[in-house]
Amino acid sequence: MTQPELTPLAPITTLPQPGVMGRALGGLFFVVALVIFGVGLYNASHAAGVVGTHGTLTVERCWVEQGSRNSSDTTVCGGTFRSDDGKVVDDQASIRAKMKPGSKVSVQQAGGWYVKVGFGETTRWIAVFFLGWLVAAFGMAFAATGMFPRSGMQVALITRAVSGTRVGMVRKWFVRGGLAGAGVCLLLTLLAWLLS
Fold first, then answer.
1. Facing residues of 76 across strands?
2. Cβ count near 155 (within 10 Å)
3. For residues 137 and 58, what is the distance between their CA atoms, to the nearest angstrom?
4. What is the pTM of this model?
5. Closest alpha carbon to 184 in 112, 127, 103
């Protein structure tokens, strides 16, 4: 009778040592989250009509902007924007949307670009804000421990290292709040799209 061959055990992954790189990685996630918060709130406030110049964009032409390797193609329609009070006219206005030439779209001027106005657009941008919560939650473990992961397994170990701590509790609520908020907003966006 022969003995079965023993295979060597895979090396055990250990936690990395705390350091500046781990805290910097956590800080980077917080900066990215702040940018996402800002983009979401800025565009949501314009889509809700709270800030910016309201008017109508008359679509004259549409084209497809080629996406990069990591993003898909985007349809852009351009035409003339006229503010409600008639003071602002921009014949080079464009919006990322698929529209038919000749159609009129209610938009809000937001700096150098235009945002569609409406309930569905507002909730879509608020969903982006909540996605920023998930980015912040992901960075919390690195900022709190100072550990810089060198593999996917170490990411899981670092995340597990903060569970049961105050950071882990805050992180859990950020994840829950981000998922719930984004989910509700996307559901409302879908509902608004179906009813329009």
1. 63
2. 15
3. 42
4. 0.76
5. 127
C-alpha span between 67 and 87 (Å, rounded) = 35
What the block records as the tokens of 24 is 């910097």
> Is 60 exceeded by the pLDDT of residue 65?
yes
Residue reference for tokens 């608020």: 126
Q: Is the distance from CB of 129 to CB of 47 less than 8 angstroms? A: no
Is it the case that residue 68 has pLDDT exceeding 90? no
Please check whether residue 145 is in contact with residue 22, taking contact to mean a CB–CB distance below 8 angstroms.
yes
Amino acid 7: pLDDT: 59
**What is the C-alpha separation between 64 and 67, in angstroms, rounded?**
9
pLDDT tier at 37, thresholds 50, 70, 90:
very high
Beta carbons within 10 angstroms of residue 29's beta carbon: 20
Residue with tokens 């982006």: 128
Q: What tokens does 43 get?
A: 């565009």
